[in-house]
Fold each of these.
Amino acid sequence: MTSHPAKHLSPSLQFLILVAITIGVLLVGNLIGAGLVMAFYGLDMVLNIAQLNLAAPGTANALWILQILGTTLPLLFVPLVFARFVVKQPQEYLKPSSNIPWTLFAIVFCVMMISSPLIELLSRINQHMVFPEYLSGVQKWMRDSEDKAEKLITLLLKMDTVFGAIANVIAVGLFTAIVEELMFRGCVQTIFVKWTGNVHAAVWITGILFSAFHMEFFGFLPRLFLGVLFGYFTAWSGSIWPAIWAHFINNGSAVIAVYLYQHKLVKIDPNSTQIFKYPAYVFSFIIVLFLLFLYNNVAKKPKTAP
């Protein structure tokens, strides 16, 4: 009997291979994306985007080409190739099983809805964090980088029609949820479970890496919180689908909120960090803990045959 190829690769080596593949594929994807933008819109468009001159016609379409070819498709390619051809254990590393209680999806929905005050609180804490004086230059660089990223996101999420909103819900909500969860809660978290031998450590390490990957320091804590939620959804159920569902709810609802605000259908600015009061934070914390306890117990029930 031959052993699985993954057993010949230590978790640390698996992680290094995954990182190397990711960097390589992202570089290739960005080069292809930039090439297509130059082919369709000219070199000036690439230079304008790099300099944040975003007023030229077609800039939004060019940004979408760069986003899809430079990030979305590469991040889908990486976990699929890694799980299928490197470790050759796609079931374990991608966790595609749907043989789970469907009640979990209802619990996940409730968690994501009720956790909004907690996410706001963490965002407020993050926004008010101040670096020591000797790191003021680093803080300024981080703030400037995030301001630039916000300008790009604002353009990408400019939705003039309902069709544009639906397209963004699919692209930003669904596709991003699938590729990032396969990458992080699928491959990365599985590697760290094997590496540390501790599910909780793996969930938190993966959450930290997930948040750091987005390179938004002033959104680090709320994204870490979300990453940990997604991690436990996957670890306790053994399936990637609850995490994808949770990620989709988070991203999709954000897109819908932006659309409604842009068209003055709601008055609450989605970027506001002062919507809830402190009692809501406490209530949210208690209910989310209860729902996670409930999720864990439901997930532990014996599974029926598919």
Amino acid sequence: MITLKTVRVERFAVDGSFIISRGAKTEVDVVYCEVTDGTLVGRGEGTPIYYEGETAELCADAIETRASQNRPLTREDLLQTMMEGAARNALDAALWDLEVRMTGTPLWKLAGLPEPEPLVTAYTISLNDPATMQADAKSAAAKGYPLLKLKMDGEADLERVTAVRLGAPDARLIIDANEAWGDIDIEEMTSELKILGVELIEQPVAAGLEDNLEGVMSSLPLCADESCHVAEDIERIASRFQAVNIKLDKAGGLTEALRLSEAAKARGLKTMVGCMLSSSLGIHPAFHLAQTADWVDLDGPALLADDRIGGFRFEGGKISLPR
């Protein structure tokens, strides 16, 4: 019988600050949990989806409540008894980890995924004035990151991207509007950004306003983030977007994320596997799913002042499993 061993809130400092259209973060709280079969222990971590009203404390409470129920603590049962989100993700990850330890089978085999290899990951350039973003992009490129993800807010964004292109002339660029382009002419903006070498626009409009994208002739593929959490969302957004950003904290774990990835690809959508700010423990299952993705954005641990011991390696613009 599998039971909850421990659950707690942990805090990690950000290296500098992480700035998007919704505000700045200098630290991130995560929910950490362990499950056990009485001998072995599996670990998991989730980062609350703050724009959905989640907090680490609420997630910890949700995990304790689920564990106290007279139901089997299995990944399949979690899908029936918990809402998607960081709490379910942390428990789901811990159960996968425990199964790996109980069976001696690596996670990629259990999940039916390719054997993991190092992957090029995007590196986030926080929202700032054009000159600062140019300097940050130049620094990231000097560290070997070939793919940069630029945070935007709907004001002076073209100037920001132009500045970044000057700072990192050879970098591939992804734009993350974080729902801030509701008043932007997307057709005109994407035409200009395509000239600057941008290859993808993430979440231009607010979740719930996807109908505003119907009929828009974007020069660049649009990627759903806040608009798509679980597999059932695909039918609703498939005609407005050409890609979907799969985050395990949104989906509520790798178990649901696998379903989401399959549903997206069945509708001809490309996939990105992304993350919230988190430690390497938090993105461990996502790294395995990312082996099947078109874009990878798993720089969460690289943005922290200090990661967990034995975390992922970030070298030459790639993320690799610990040695």
Amino acid sequence: MKQIRLGRTGPLSSAIGLGCMGMSGMYGPSDRAESLATLHAAVEAGVTLLDTGDFYGMGHNEMLIGEALRSLPRDRLLLSVKFGALRDPAGSWLGYDARPAAVKSFLAHTLQRLGVDHIDIYRPSRLDPAVPIEDTIGAIADLVQAGYVRHIGLSEVGVETIRRAAAVHPISDLQIEYSLVSRGIEDRILPLLRELGIGVTAYGVLSRGLISGHWQPGVLAAGDFRSFGPRFQGANLDANLALVEALRQVAEGRGITVAQAAIAWVASRGDDILPLVGARRRDRLAEALGAADVTLDAADLAAIEAAVPQGSVAGARYPDSQMAMLDSERG
């Protein structure tokens, strides 16, 4: 698989990474054996970047990856880990903690669950409004100095926070939602990242399955957080699935799937953008990785953007309460 560098100072990575969140219940029940098989299949196919968060399944996701790592080539892999989100025993969200002492404690538990001696990219999952970003990045920089972390990343933060963080320590990449239907980074955030030499790890490239071409309307499984997503509600969902059908016509004319068109579109936006695919089954993984072999020309791109015009999606990417907490939505 093609390799790209995450920013000017970051590591080399496969051009597509695997987002592992869905293997730990966020989209409803998952199959442990199939999750492990998917992790192995991804690495065999050339994927080197595995992305997780210490709060996915309250540690379940890290333990699952740790199990897989026992028979995978750790020295060829990049582990990208988010931290800071607080959850209670029922799985409810309690806020964020990015104090320096908490950062180091979170990492200690992550290393234990994964069974490794370092994390390749470590990043706060969101901005903690009670803690200056300089303090958080400074704490991770201490962990870099000590050898427990290789690179520092960011997640869902805006231009002011990015500048302040980069003034403390080189930042490899910003993890942020970016897709055909989530293009908010293009106005201010992406130009700044390119100015500073910071890469993009794009999650939500299929908008949580909405633009995968496989969405089946109906009752979501218990525990599937998409049941609270505005884009999956009522008339919004109907309007968004109409966009998907328009995209399907373009994709079929090109001989590719809807998902491959959407992923290839994200990859086409620049060699500094790495799409994360959230496959938790081998068949979905194979389809997604097929996007790496798709080259979209100017006519393809124009047809895709005509099918899904910028700003045409109905509904925000998160409920209002969560949108209000996103530093990235402040510019």
